[in-house]
Amino acid sequence: MTLVGIELNHGSHLPLYQQLYDAIRHAILEERLQRGHRLPASRIFAGELGVSRNTVALAFEQLMIEGYLKGKVGSGTYVTDDLPERLLQARPSANDRPVASSKLHKSSRRGRTLSKIILRRNRTPEDVRAFQAGVPAMEEFPYALWLKLTQQVWRTLPRAQLSYGDAGGYEPLREAIASYLRTSRAVRCDAEQVIIVNGSQQGVDLVARVLLDSGDQVLVEDPGYLGARAALLGAGVRLTPLPVDTEGLQIENRKARSSQARLVYVTPSHQYPLGVTMTLARRLHLLEWARRSSAWILEDDYDSEFRYAGRPLASLQGLDTCGCVIYLGTFSKVLFPGLRLGYLVVPKNVVEPFLAAKTIADRQSAILEQAVLARFIEEGHFARHLRRMRVLYQHRQEVLLDAATRELGGLLEIHPANSGMHLNAWLYNHDDDNAQVIARRADEFGVIANSLSDYTMRYHQRPALLLGYAAFNDKEIRQGVRRLAQAITSFRKAKDSKGQ
């Protein structure tokens, strides 16, 4: 038997056996070769095509491995009855009607609570718009350098590293992070205390799994970071909000004194979203409270690298003498969010439980990204990138303040900050509803300006809007300020017309 229509190009860069494999496979898929069709013997087929018998044998072998052909001893080679493509497709159900929602099958109360808190973040527009907070200047990231390092790592990474590894993370990355933290943040740690996680929210989740039981009480900042709040609620704990003032979390609040809390979550270096820095006196008070209460402190140090005046602040963990502080950091703000790498620094006596929890959660973080990041830090690129971004973000804050002075005077009150990636724009009245309405109106004008009350549980501050500036160039900032001014003016006109 012959196979009609198969032609091989001896001048092609593709090997002849690959061309023959492709031609036979296409003939089978197009049903020019039917199921059960017997192919000619390799010796005869090779003679017809003018190629070596080995070329035909290699093509036949690959087609057999992939399930297109099958061999019968003493009989020959045949097209298989069940093609691989058919085996990879699910057979349609006899009932193609859509599944109806059942009133009996609902998410848990915890699930419904989480959806109310976190749903907005999952609907963030793909195109980052002014003034979305918490987003770095991704257009300034050294992508070409990162690609070069990725290629180098992929060529040199031992193949054993591609298997299951240490749940704590890639050892060179843990060592690089520990060295960086000791120098820049006065964190007291060894590499074995560093646990690599997939972003800060997994870090919070692991802390809750290891250190808390369902129903335990946790003290949180109010206002505070929604992601941490959601992760803690997901662990089934009870959250008790504490107010935040110009000195940071009010740990001396009567609710803290009378609580049975097992953990307190804080952002002492740059409180989110108010931006205040916890004073030394308040830090020492917090550490003493944790010692007396046998409670843990989770220190989220999410963007302390971006400080524009004075030396970087020492961490709360560096002041800890009783081993009660868990230190949490992330690369989402300093590099790019899609990297999904962060780290925990945990006391030595709880390293093993954290490794077990990480193993259960997802076994380990992706090795290639860890290896590239380790080299990025070791070769000094990380430090250089931080220096560049610190200068850039300070400039962008100044542009925002200048534009706000010209466009938002009499509408919002904005003050400079010596750290961070966003500013709070305060309303002159004290009506939280106005801030919510203005935020919605701003969205209609193409601007993201979340209301401060979105981050509040009980202790309401003066109404304000959060204005992130790190991710936007001068033109985008000035244009965003103009649109925000238009949104507020539109809101005021609508409100005045209703009052008439």
Q: Topology, pairings included?
A:
Blueprint: H1 16-29, E1 38-39, H2 42-49, H3 53-65, E2 69-72, E3 76-79, H4 84-87, H5 109-122, H6 143-156, H7 171-184, E4 194-197, H8 200-211, E5 217-222, H9 226-234, E6 238-245, E7 248-249, H10 254-257, E8 263-266, H11 280-293, E9 296-300, E10 325-330, E11 342-345, H12 351-362, H13 367-378, H14 381-407, E12 412-414, E13 422-427, H15 432-444, E14 464-468, H16 474-499
Parallel strand pairs: 5-6, 5-8, 8-9, 9-10
Antiparallel strand pairs: 1-3, 2-3, 4-11, 6-7, 10-11, 12-13, 13-14
Helix pairs in contact: 1-3, 2-3, 5-9, 6-13, 7-13, 8-9, 8-12, 14-16, 15-16
Quick recap of the structure?
With 500 residues, the chain is an alpha/beta fold. It has three domains: 72 residues, Orthogonal Bundle (Arc Repressor Mutant, subunit A), CATH 1.10.10.10; 253 residues, 3-Layer(aba) Sandwich (Aspartate Aminotransferase, domain 2); 116 residues, Aspartate Aminotransferase, domain 1 (Alpha-Beta Complex).
